[in-house]
Amino acid sequence: MSDARERVRRHLLDHSVKRGDFVLKSGRHSTWFIDSKKTICAPEVMVDVATLILERIPDDATAIGGLTMGADGATFITAGVAATRGRNLNAFSVRKEVKDHGAGGRIAGVLEPGDRVVITEDTVTRGTSLLEAAHVVRDYGAEVVMLLAIVDRGGTVEAMAADEGIAFDALFTSQDLGFTNEES
Fold it and tell me: Is the pTM here over 0.85, yes or no?
C-alpha cells in the first residue's frame, strides 16, 4: 500500500468512521457510518486524496464532477491538484434540482458538451447518486467514462454501472476499512 493510500485509510478510520446504530439513505440499519468528507476536506490528507483519484482516472478524462455535496469536495480538490501538475480538468456540480433563476439547469461550474467525464461521490452504498449524476451529464451532451467513489460500502455499484456501460472504481471498499459490504 502506498504511503498516500495508507495515510488516507488511517484518516478515514480515525476521523470519518463512526460506530453505533445508524439508518442509511436506503433505510437499512448499519453498525457503522462513514462521513468521508471529514477526510476529503482535511488539509493534512486532501492532496493525498486527490493524488489517489488522479492515479485511478483515465488519462483522457477532461472533466470531473457529480451530485452536489457528495461529490464537491473530491471534485474541486482533484481539479485543483491536477492543475498544479499540468493537467486541466473541468470541475462541476450537478444540482439536485433544476435552478429556476439565473442561467438555470442542473450543472454548476465548468462542463462542456463532449467532455469525457469522471463522476465522483464521497461514499456510496447503492450508487444511485452516481447514476443520477451520470444521466444528467449524458443529457447535457458529455460522455461519462467512469464512476469513482472514495468509499464503496455496498459492493453493488460495479454491476449497476456495468449495466449502463460505465466503468466503476473506488479508492476504498468496506473490506479495506475492516467491515463487510452493506448491500451484499
Answer: yes
